[in-house]
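Please, structure for the following, as tokens.
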Amino acid sequence: MSNGMKAFFQKLARAFLIPVSLIGVASLIMAIGCIFTDAAIIKMVPFFASTPIQYLGNWMVTTGVQVLHNLALVYAMALAFGLAAEKKEYAALGAFIGYFALLKSMNLLITTFPTVRAMFPETGITTVLGVETVNVGIMGGILVGVIVANLHNKFKDIKLPMAFSFYQGTRFVPIISLIVLSLVGQLLPFLWVYVQRAIDAFAKVLGSLGIFGPFVYALGERALIPTGLHQIWNTIVRNTSVSGVYTFASGAVAEGTVAGYAQYLVEGVPTNASLAQLVSYYFGPQIPMMLGGLPAIALAIYKCADADKRESIKPLVVAGALTAIFAAISEPIEFIFLFAAPLLYVVYSLYTGLSWFLCFILGSGVGGANSSIIGLFTNGFLRPGSNVWVVCVVTVLEFILCYVTFRWWIIHFDVKTPGRGGDYDDSLAFAAEIANIEMPAAKTGEPAGLDTRNPEMLKAQLIVRGLGGKDNIMETEACMSRLRVVVKDYSLIDEAILKKTGCNGIVKVSGNEIQIVYGTTVTLIKKTVDKVMENS
């Protein structure tokens, strides 16, 4: 894959975080609302049957379901917004217009030409936002978002002849989006027939794996974590027929586990699948690693550290464990050992797959879009029929497996995890002496001195210096745990300085893009880095 393609997919993966975060919150709101309206829970807590509680529950369900039932539009607008270089709001508007243009254009095609409609099975035609159209699902929204973002970046500064000058610049973006997506709508149905066949083939491959399907899925996700492309993998699997097509008693048909679980919260288990099958590709099977596996790895790293260094590394491992437990973010722990022991990461990925496999075969019904301790309660303990005990048992098993394996591996192979003489130890020594250390001469565009009175500013100044100075930094972006940076010249980056800023890992993505893993504080770090660059 060329560097240009790598950069595009990295940027696309960043943009996916916008809808993913919204889906997580919407699912949580809906799950809490369903607790108040569930008939089985009302029997246990009669007070929930009162009109105010029922109204509150229905309001929460209605709020969450609006997002989950319109995911294609959400992805179209969010990806256009995330991929736009600047003036992002016009890209989002263009995506909104473009998505409706796509739907109506396909509607005209299938209603005018019966032979085109006949190309698709019954489930291949659906109604979206009141428009009967070809069922391109969430992939249609992703396509619109990518196309509009490119149109926006190309035409946002366009100059038109004087007679049409009113329509130039950003005003031209919704106009060109309307025209282009309307044309795409005339072509997409003929191409979508083959795309749908490919998706169906992928679904059949996973289906043919039987009980090992979730294991393979989880293994693939962990393999993509270092690249940051796992969000794309998750979105495709969870929002298409790859993770199943579910039919409900009301006649509703949901494609993918995200839409299927949302419908389950409204009317119960689908008629063509068990609850365990419905959630087998959702977040529930990931809970044992977040609550058991990753905290165990953090404990093993702490126990393997030299006795005189354990206190100094405690903030690192405790923060990483708590981030996994309460925020369901795994990278702060994973990147501690990923580069120090790549084979150990392979073992960890296999253990992750084991978690999904065991949860499936033992009949766990814990689903939802949250794999933290909050998700365990809202989608497990508070949901009748979830078999939450399965997740609890697997969590204990993963804790034991990960702790024993990691402690043995670190000691046996002398892995340089924090507290054992690796890069993190150098960072601790550096931090202790920072006020007196003589730093290399500042580079062009860089402030000459370091603000040793403000730890946040100090770290940001060091990050900027480690990245080759302000003039070498083209773009910064924060995702869940990583600072993603595009630079002009990668050779100017000083990884030794970056490692001394307390990062968990550094990933070179392409010829001019780097990712620095900091954990959940990355948003604050980015803001401070931007402030340092503005004040330079």
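The chain is about 60% helix and 5% strand. Confidence is low (pLDDT under 50) at residues 430-453.
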